[in-house]
Structures are given as C-alpha cells and as structure tokens.
Amino acid sequence: MPLHVFRVSAVVRESVPLVAWSGSFLASIVKNLMSSDEVGCGFSLSPLQVVSGKGLRVVLSGFVGDSDGVVLDAGSRVLFRLTSFCRNFPSHFLTSLGNGVVGPFTVQSIDYEFIDVFPGGRAEDFINFIDVDSKGVVEVFFYPTILVFRGWRVLYPSPQRIVFNLLKLATGLLNLDPRLAKRRARVLSRNIELIKDCTEVVGIGIGRGRVVKAFMGRALFGVTGLENLRDFVDLLKFGSLVGVGKSRGIGFGFYRFRVLPPRSRKTSRADEGG
Prior knowledge:
The protein is α+β, with helices and mostly antiparallel strands and about 270 residues long. Helices cover about 30% and strands about 35% of the residues.
C-alpha cells in the first residue's frame, strides 16, 4: 500500500483562537476535505506549524494549565503535512485543496510525493557519525506522543517501542517482509538505548472536553554499530512521514531528529555541565 504525502503551505485569512490541540483543529478541517473512503483508509497529520523569522514553530495549544490559549494571527503563514494510506490517489482531497480556501486558510502551494518503497540509506554515509567504539547518537525532539505496548500507554521515549511500532507500520503500509522486519527489530532494539531523557508528561485537551496524557521533549538515543545507526535513521525518516505511536490522525507522534557527530556530543556535554 503506497503513501500519498501532501505538504501544504497556507496563509491564515482571519485570526483563529485555539483552545484545544492544534492537530485536532486541523484534523476537523482535513476530514471535511476528504471523501468518506479517503477518511476510512486512514491518514496521519503533522500538527500545525507557523513560519516565523526563526524558522518553523509547532503550534502548541490545548495544554492543561495554559489559561491564555493560542491565537493564530491573520496573515500568518502555516504549514502542515498529511499522509494518506489509501491505495488509490486521494483525488477528492486534492480537488478540495485546489479550491484555494480551506477553513480559515488560503492555500498557497501543495507539494505531493508518492512513496511505495521503504526509504533505505547507505551505511557508509554514517561513518562520520560514529566514534572509535562504533557508537552513534541520535537526538530526537518529540512533540506530544503516546507510545503503546499491549494496550498500555508508554509515556516516555522507549527505543524498543519506537522501533517495533515503526517497523510494524512499515510492514503494513509498504509491504516489508514481516519475518525480516521482526528479526531486524529485535537486533535494533538490543543495540539502541535511551541515554538521556529530557521529556515530560503533559496533559492536552484534544477537543470536546477530552484530555489525554502524552510525553514531549528532547531525548538522546545511543546506537551501537554502523548498520544499526543507518537502520534507525531510516526508520525515523519513515516515521517523519507517518508519525509514531497513537493518535497520529490528530498530529500526535510528530518529531524532529538529527544525528550528532562525535565532536558535537562533547560540546553538548560541556554546555550542559556549565
């Protein structure tokens, strides 16, 4: 089953106050643009992101205890990503976007990408990111995320749950061999550890009076072995298209990541110690 990835840039036509999670607000708009079949196939969203002078900023709204709320000002430029899991091209969604006006937004541009093969990198591209002990470090900043294991909510960045969740998704969506995927997940899970956890559990109103708990913040993962580092980064690249964990349809499980070269890790530790 292919992935249909849409990246949309738009301008806010009129100021919008957000009292709940921005992803819930976006999901309500997106569902109105899609046919019932397209909604039924499943999709994932990024949260709303605002373009500012400092780059992209995720619109963080609906947090329990935040009485001020968030206002999207008229004239602001926003971005979001939608990934559809439909086998057929979601033409109704694209036609609706093409009308130019979507809720309080005026659409400026739409980028489309078709993906039917799991994105694979080359191990040799990561040589400069491992130290003399063949260890690499990956920094991930999670926006509200909920991992699950056998029905339990895992509210911290467990590397095992991330690996198994993303490989399970890739197996279902991009037709990976499930036996090979499970075998690779076991190897990866033994060679990745959470070496620094700066996340915290937060309560977020997702609309209609519902509040859920999720974790959010920065985490560092240590990876042993060049091929394991390559495979973990490949998984994270895939996850950047579909999200990780639970409630991806309202923009949960969105993250940003980078691989840290050995020199940067030393600088980072010195900064933290100062």
